[in-house]
Each structure stands twice: as C-alpha cells, then as structure tokens.
Amino acid sequence: MTTATARAHPNIALVKYWGKRDEQLMLPAAGSLSLTLDAYATTTTVSLDASAAEDRFTLGGTTATAGQTEQVVRFLDLVRARADSSAHAVVDSHNEAPTGAGLASSASGFAALAVAAAAAYDLDLDRADLSRLARRGSGSATRSLVAGLGIWHAGDDDASSFAEPIEGPEMSMIIVTVDPGQKKVSSREGMRRTAATSPYYPGWVDSTARSLEEMSAACRAGDFTRVGEITESNALRMHAAIEACEPPIRYLRSASVAVFDAVEQLRARSIEAYATADAGPNVVVIARPADAAAVADHLAGHGDVRIVGAGPGAHLITTEES
Ligand code: DP6
C-alpha cells in the first residue's frame, strides 16, 4: 500500500476566474491571476487500498457528504486512468479554513489532492502537469500549485491551461470575515447561471481578458497602485455580472459593501488599500506590507480580521510504502 500526504494553501484572485468554456475539461472562459496565501492550509493523505471495493473520503475526521465524495471519486478516476490502476483509495483531508465560507478551500483541497494522489498512484508529473490535474477538480485549484503570485493561462486546450509564477509587488492581504457561514449558491452553479442568463457575461469575459494583460504588465512593473486598481474594478465587474443573473444572485451583503466603503476612506487618507471579494460575503483587502497593520486596525469593527501574506505552492510532505 502506498500512502502520500500533501499540503496546499488557498489563493485569492486579483483577476477573477468566473465562467468555463469547457465544463468537461474545466477550461476557463478567461485567464486569471492570484496570490497563494500562507494561511488556511489543507493537508490531505491518500492511501491506496487494492482490496477496497470503493473509495472513502473523510473531511476533518468525519465522513464527507455524498456530493463531496462524488467529486473526489471522479477526480481519482482521472488519476487512475492515467496511472492504469484500478486500486481504490482512502482520502483523509483536513482544512484549516471553514469550508464554503468563500476562502477558496476547494482550491487548496484539490491542489493538495492532486499532489497526494499523483504521488500515491506513482505518476511522474511536473508542476505544470500537476496544475493541469488540479484544474480538473476545481478551477481555482489550478493556481494553488504556484507559490505567491500565479497566472492561470486560459490556454488553447487541456495541455496549455495551467498556472505559473509571475513576479509582482510585495503585498499583504487583510481578510475580513463578515459572515463565516456557508454560501448559498456554489461557485460552480453561480458561474453556470451567469453564463446562461447574465446579459453582462460576454462583457465580463472580454474585459477580464484585457484586465489580465494589464494586470500582468502592472505586476511585472512592480506597480502596486495599478495592481490594486485593477483588482478592485475586476471584482466589482464580476459581482455586477453575477447580480444581473436570472434569478439574481447576490454574494455581497451590506456588511461587505461597508468594507468597500471603509477601504475607500483609507485611500482618502492616503493609505493605499483595495478590496476584492469572491463568491461569498467576505472581503479581502490588499495593501503594501508596511500598511497592513493600519488597514487591519481600520477594518477591525467589520468582522474577524486577519493579515496574511504570500505562501508556498502545493507540495508533497511524505510518501510511505507499507
Ligand atoms: C470567485 O474554482 O470554486 O473564487 O471551478 O467550478 O470548482 P469551480 O469553481 P471555483 O471558483 C472560484 C471562483 C472565485 C474566483 C477565483 O478564484 O478566481
């Protein structure tokens, strides 16, 4: 029996991924760019069990839901097909972030699973291949293979749609958890509905492709101000496209909007901070590391506030034969 354990961290996108052009291969409608965090890790162990009749998945020590298990089994099927193996596996995963609270735990989850499963099934994959594999589990997981800032190329096909590192200015992220609860509409469902019903979806996809080019240039130039401006406008464009769905979806609550207001106040006082939010009510603020403590102080009344920095890409911790 082979056992492998891997660890991965979530990432927060500065240019968001919202929409797929191929659901089967999980190819995104546009590229995206993110920062992998140094907090909220997922640690996953995959143990092959040749005598087991089916895969088993535990999350945080308890049996996962049928839906979660089905996603993991489908992912393991892809790995088994590549490895030419029929062995089932026991997957044990621990998240340091609350699942579903918009802290992208599906990103760290599938990035850790990709690395652990590839090692357990003895696949010889490089970092780009692992990023492509993680993509098949959850789009945002593609980027958690990369340390720090990573760009996920939309690509032309399966082979060219992966993430790689990009240089950029140093930044801290201030995570403002205004509501730790589970989100009501999953990203996957929200994306489908936006693509199918939002009149702004084509504009969102076009503008994101352009924002990504501009963001890449701003990152390479180390231009924190431009990085921040593009981050905030890209997030608001995504939420505008989402809110225009039928039936509408609103991930941002009044408490979230209040954080965007507070960030604007900071800028009026010449503290450069910019806000973004994923498919949930929580807000993530970027700032230069030297300003992070002042930004966190200013936002303290809005919820639980935590300062995080750039973290490592998904990596293997141990492998064992028994
Ligand atoms: C708003 O990667 O969770 O966080 O690919 O369907 O699993 P699936 O979706 P997921 O969506 C992430 C959406 C986002 C933006 C981002 O991380 O780029």
TrEMBL record:
<dbReference type="InterPro" id="IPR041431">
    <property type="entry name" value="Mvd1_C"/>
</dbReference>
<keyword id="KW-0067">ATP-binding</keyword>
<dbReference type="InterPro" id="IPR053859">
    <property type="entry name" value="MVD-like_N"/>
</dbReference>
<keyword id="KW-0443">Lipid metabolism</keyword>
<comment type="similarity">
    <text>Belongs to the diphosphomevalonate decarboxylase family.</text>
</comment>
<feature type="domain" description="Diphosphomevalonate decarboxylase-like N-terminal">
    <location>
        <begin position="8"/>
        <end position="163"/>
    </location>
</feature>
<keyword id="KW-0547">Nucleotide-binding</keyword>
<dbReference type="Pfam" id="PF22700">
    <property type="entry name" value="MVD-like_N"/>
</dbReference>
<dbReference type="InterPro" id="IPR020568">
    <property type="entry name" value="Ribosomal_Su5_D2-typ_SF"/>
</dbReference>
<dbReference type="GO" id="GO:0004163">
    <property type="term" value="F:diphosphomevalonate decarboxylase activity"/>
</dbReference>
<protein>
    <recommendedName>
        <fullName>diphosphomevalonate decarboxylase</fullName>
        <ecNumber>4.1.1.33</ecNumber>
    </recommendedName>
</protein>
<dbReference type="InterPro" id="IPR014721">
    <property type="entry name" value="Ribsml_uS5_D2-typ_fold_subgr"/>
</dbReference>
<dbReference type="InterPro" id="IPR005935">
    <property type="entry name" value="Mev_decarb"/>
</dbReference>
<dbReference type="InterPro" id="IPR036554">
    <property type="entry name" value="GHMP_kinase_C_sf"/>
</dbReference>
<feature type="domain" description="Mvd1 C-terminal">
    <location>
        <begin position="174"/>
        <end position="299"/>
    </location>
</feature>
<keyword id="KW-0444">Lipid biosynthesis</keyword>
<dbReference type="Pfam" id="PF18376">
    <property type="entry name" value="MDD_C"/>
</dbReference>
<keyword id="KW-0456">Lyase</keyword>
<dbReference type="InterPro" id="IPR029765">
    <property type="entry name" value="Mev_diP_decarb"/>
</dbReference>
